[in-house]
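Collaborator request log, item 7. Partner lab (contact: R.S.) asked for a structural prediction of Methyltransferase domain-containing protein to inform their binding assays.
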Amino acid sequence: MAAERTQPGTSARTGVVWEVLVGGLARLAGSTGGGALDVVDLGGGTGGFAVPLARLGHRVTVVDPSPDALASLERRADEEGVSERVRAVQGDLGSVFDAVAKESADAVLCHGVLEVADDPVEGMGAAARVLRPGGLASVLAASRDGLVVARALNGNVAGALTALHGPTPRRFTEDALVELVVAAGLDVVSQHGVLLFADLVPTAAADDPDLIELELATASRPEFRALATRLHVLASRPGA
Ligand SMILES: C[S@@+](CC[C@H](N)C(=O)[O-])C[C@H]1O[C@@H](n2cnc3c(N)ncnc32)[C@H](O)[C@@H]1O
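Returned to partner:
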């Protein structure tokens, strides 16, 4: 029997990204006149997004350097009955074109990967080149400003100041993330903050069913989103 797993859309940790992504894919599928899209999930790990996307009917290629993560992905895809729509390829941002052709995808996911890339500018550029004209990029990265807030609220005021004044490698401000996306030749479609309250509320409130609604209601508002733990940018490749 398929293992019960929390679906991204029902979790306060992933709900915002899922809503934004699925909305973007639905609009794209509508505008291309088709249903199933070609999606590449760079650093897609164990398939937390890839498998649910395949369940929606999309064809997903996951490129990840970790054989263990890919093995878990394949098991998960099998359990969910979507193996024929999920391709697992060992590789990384630097070797992505060994695994997928340039301009071959309708959408590319780059979630939690720019933080671990040797060169985020190169990595984002490679992600953008995977896309066909008109394709969508979903970029999720750890926030520098969210780290400042989290450290201060944990009583680590000196650490908050260190994060604020930087350099803070592997963390991005909203402006820096947008700059990366634009430098890769993409147009920003929307910006959201992910995990503002879910990472700040006391443990007792972590399972509060209203938490996802609060995350969704605040995620796009500039006064909240810049302080979230992660930043999400949806962007499109011009020229469709
Ligand atoms: C934080 S996890 C994110 C997994 C998934 N994208 C998610 O959001 O749940 C980072 C993933 O990136 C992979 N990774 C590490 N270095 C990478 C690189 N240079 N290029 C592509 N993926 C990489 C890791 O194996 C891991 O699966």
